[in-house]
Amino acid sequence: MIEEINEDEIKKLCCNVESNASTTKWLNGSQEILVTHNVTETCYRIENAGRYDHGNYTCISENIVGSGSVSVVLKVNYKPVVPYLHDIFDAINEGKTKKICCVVDSSPSPTSTRLVNGSQQILVTHFVAETCYTINNISRFDQGIYTCIAENIIGIGSITTVLKVKYKPLVSTTHGLVEEINEGAKIKLCCYVDSNPSPTSTKWLNGSLEILVTLNFTETCYSFENVSRYDHGNYTCIAENIIGIGSITTFLKVNYKPVVSIFHDLIEEINEGDQTKLCCFVKSNPTPTSTRWLNGIKEILVSHNVYKTCYTIESISRYDQRNYTCIAENIIGIGSASIVLKVKWRKTSSSIDNPYTLVSIVKEDLFTLPKDMSKSVGFDKPEVSSSHDLIEVIHEGETKTLCCFVDSNPIPISTRWLNGSQDIYVTHNVAKTCYTIQSVSRYDQGNYTCIAHNAIGNGSITTLLQFKSNYYVKESIQTIVIVVFLAIVAAAVAGKGMLFQNSIQNITTVVRAVLENRDISQVSVRHSSTSSDDDSNASVYLDDGYEHSYTILLTNNRGEDEHVYLNPTKTSNSANSTSFENAACGNSFELTDQTKTHCEANSGEENNESDT
Predict the structure, then answer these.
(1) Model's pTM, two decimal places?
(2) What percent of the chain is modeled with pLDDT above 90?
(3) Residue 90 maps to a domain
(4) What are residue 365's phi and psi, to 5 degrees?
(5) Residue 459's closest CA among 441, 437, 479, 433?
């Protein structure tokens, strides 16, 4: 007989006996749990049935004649119970294999058993007492809270285990794999460590150089207050624990302006006629957008987006010597380097069987050479030349550039331009020296001398600048008109009619001839004239008591009398006196402050002196 009861319910087991003077007992299995005497009914009461009350219950009655018994199987139904087969906190190293099992004790059998990780169901079984889940090659991502849930018609039972996976550090950063920054800025490199257990140490390395170490920290930062181009490179954060090592690398890319280098001496000496190659090398980030070679201030070569730029002079000459500068530029800034190219040459007239060259020569070196050896090896004082005439005309307001060229070996120590005796411009170690007058005036006229000096001696050349005013033609016409006027007055005073007429005709011819040379057909002249020995622009005004202007009309006719000419000359007595000669008359007269006129006519009359 089977009696079924749910857990926690009350159950009463009774047996009835038909005999006299008997003893009745209830046994649970073999264990006596209740005894009565001389009663016909014996009951065993279970107040709060539990799963452990499950089993065989037997009622035995005895008297003097014999015994009798009856058995009942008590079946207690209860919800599932899942015992702990693992620690509440179970730890395993990453990469191992883990088997998670749950064994269910329930009556009746569980209708379902589920294994979940957090809220995610990973395994379900039905009507079985044991359920297992295997994780091969466990990782840090498999760690979590695993729960086994069993269910039957009575209720639900469960158990939970926290699975911890031990793993080496996982290092991360908020920066990119390449971090770009301009030189001079600030930056902080930080790394974050995920590990179980915590890292025992975390280090920052620049290349292979250890620059920072921390202990038991999951965040480590290294700061740059003022980034330079030398901070450019790989930076690695390394974290370590008892399981292993983890790391991450950031490449710090520092942008900086170009650094230019030239693999030559600062002063490079080369023989005339040789080939030379000037190369500059650029270090910059980013790549230089342009690299230029300059000869002085003149651009001679440009390249783009390259780190090496070379300029070749196939056959170098003395005029190629000067400063050469390589300038590189990118978006950050500009860098440059310079070299002084010195050219050594020999004079074409010199020759010896075994010539030699001094790397650098000073005047004292010449005393150690044999007699006349300095000339035989081509050393001589400078020869100075110019592309100008010895006399140069300059016009008011224009720009005038005076250049001199120096041929010397050794090269000139200094080259100077002098205005008169005054130094106005000096250069050193160059073969060409130019001096520019921006806006010429009459005060700029005079002698300009270029003097070059080397260890042997000096050489020079002089150019005379003559000033020509824009008013020169006008002033020359005024002078002629005054001369004509004075000649007419002198002739009138003489009282010779024929002479007077002849003089006017001859003077008109002179005026016409002079003006034809200046391509002037009509000239308007005020009552003034310019005539000065010291200054061609100085003005002399005539005061004859009249205020009027006059005009001389000229014709381009060369067929008139050319026997009469006007020849002004200075006398020793007065700088301002002028003498004139009349070819037709055969006489001459002189104009001074007291002008005298003499003319021998056919009548033999003599003219009196007259004031003008």
Answers:
(1) 0.46
(2) 46
(3) yes
(4) -65, -30
(5) 433
